[in-house]
């Protein structure tokens, strides 16, 4: 009799489609603009990076980019006091309410205009948004059950110019708002009888920051001309008196009238006056300025740009446009430190909850620093490339990534030094570089002389100069399995040079268009070529035969730049792929170019498998397919009209071939593009250098139910039953059929170490690869290092010969396993060396003390014993230096 569940399991047992990589991180760029925010525990830092948010775990030295993005660059970040929610606001005022626990978007809201600042109240019940010359008080989401997450409570009027900063009192009763009109306003979050609003002057420039003193209404205001005013209030926080309740009937009638006049109910409006009457200020809260200080007494500092204040330690940190920052103790204004980060403007400052760490963000250099001011040491010091990244490379074990940028810098996690410089016999402009698989030969292509230069890595000596191309050299690639170099040129040819035959031309492949990039398959048997006409062709280079082609021009899906006179469809006709990379198994190929998409193709079927959108940031150019009608006038696009100059007609025409945009424009928008793509040697991830930074995509199958050859009898209860019967091989096979990682781990760790050899020998070949892949991932998290090493050793020893026949397919799994073991080897070896040194040092100390005691008993042998103890200490120190 057929079970009613059979159709379901029959459908689940079919081979599932191959899982695709998902966005896993943004590296190489640590800060763009906006305010920095420490988390509640003070151990992590939120940093806006374009239209994304990166979370830096400073205790564990980890960085994570949240899997969400706004439409434009983020300018404001508001973090709730409990650290569970964050409000991200972009350049146009579009906001995302984000859960930092679930790392997902909860709600979207549009403020219709740019927002300058956002701040939660200390009790987490409300938050204030500074927009235009107004301050809006909202009920914080999550505290009440409401349909709309953002409910407007009050609107505060007062400043005549745009608001710039916000700060709350510790009890959430009042908040202060700074403005560009050089005034600071104190408002009551509730309607207090003796404080509805209060206006403070005393400055001659824009207010940059304002801070309440701890548990007080006393206030500090700081302006852009580096002036600090100290304001003292005659009333304590407990002295604020609630407004007497109004007539309930009148309030109800007023509310009904308001609903009839307005389509949407608005919050309460509070209008402040800069010069209130004497009757209005009677029996009210009053402020008096008790001091005024200046940061630029010697005239060295001006244009204060950022400030932060820690109330418990009374620490004030100020940053300037010159890259200098000051630490002062308030209210006496005592200078603690005065240091310089760089020569660029400090855009944001934040202090953690303990007051020990200070974070600085410099938008000009993309620099992020966390400084421990008491020990005067850096907790974090990172800087992205000043200009766009153009190249990247993985280390052989996939553990490190190296990036190169247009700023001439190379980033890596390890400190390197220049040990060899290669020069050409005459000045040449190098356009591409390649190193053979042995690391002995270096080749560089020239853009002006059309030649290829070959050097020896060991000696740095020029070995040969290859001539034959009639156009600039665009790309070089060494065959990973043979001594063959492929060179691509704008002369529509690809030449193959035989390294063992005096670098003679082995083959010349003729193309239909200028060649931009070449790449060998990992096994060296196939060559991929991307040309200017948008085609990717595949060649059997041994026989000089074309085996396939992909028409990829339409897959690029170009966007229209603001200054383009033609549509995106017409512009795409002249676009092509500029970077290629095979996957570790050679079955797929990545392709990217001047587009926001990266395409992955199946080489055998020559079809598009998936198209990855690397960015949804519309602050970059060439993102929109059609022009925005809101930016259109009767004379054309507003972007074509430059207020600062251009021709006599006011229209500025860009130079052809400019990729990063014209920096002389008032509004600079870099163009979105992909400059380099590379697969990780483990085959589980790939990376791309883009205008946004270094993007990582990896396979994440932890949350996907993906059964393998599942039938109705494979259930967790049956697996546990089989395990109790000590049928370990059958239990492992059943666990892999269900394909739940926790269950697989439970079954494998239940196998006694003495039975591992028997289980590995009886395991079917189909499950050996799956078990190796599981072991590679388990090494990264499990503490059972020796147990999993036994499993790996037995599997490779018993099935090594069979695995060699499928080496190409299993290469990513083996490299993934090797990477995991290598990382543990490095950690354990360092620990062992340190322990050996400590043991030797302890033995030397104990022997030295024993000799001294013996010397006290036998005074005649003191010199001999001292020389012996000195010798022992020298041996210990010599061992330390050697290790």
From TrEMBL:
For the keyword Repeat, the answer is yes
UniProt cross-references to Pfam families, sorted A to Z: Utp12 (PF04003), WD40 (PF00400)
Lineage of producing organism: Eukaryota, Metazoa, Chordata, Craniata, Vertebrata
Question: GO biological process: what's one of them?
Answer: maturation of SSU-rRNA from tricistronic rRNA transcript (SSU-rRNA, 5.8S rRNA, LSU-rRNA)
Q: Which organism is it from?
A: Malurus cyaneus samueli
WD repeat ranges per the UniProt record:
382-410, 466-499
Q: Which GO terms describe its cellular component?
A: Pwp2p-containing subcomplex of 90S preribosome; small-subunit processome
The record's annotation in InterPro entries points to: PWP2, SSU_processome_Utp12, WD40/YVTN_repeat-like_dom_sf, WD40_repeat_CS, WD40_repeat_dom_sf, WD40_rpt
* Family note: Belongs to the WD repeat PWP2 family.
Q: What is this protein called?
A: Small-subunit processome Utp12 domain-containing protein
Q: Which Gene3D superfamilies match?
A: YVTN repeat-like/Quinoprotein amine dehydrogenase
Where the record annotates domain Small-subunit processome Utp12, the positions are 739-843
Point to the regions of Basic and acidic residues compositional bias: 247-256, 263-278
Q: Which UniProt keywords apply?
A: Repeat, WD repeat
Region Disordered: list its residue ranges.
242-278
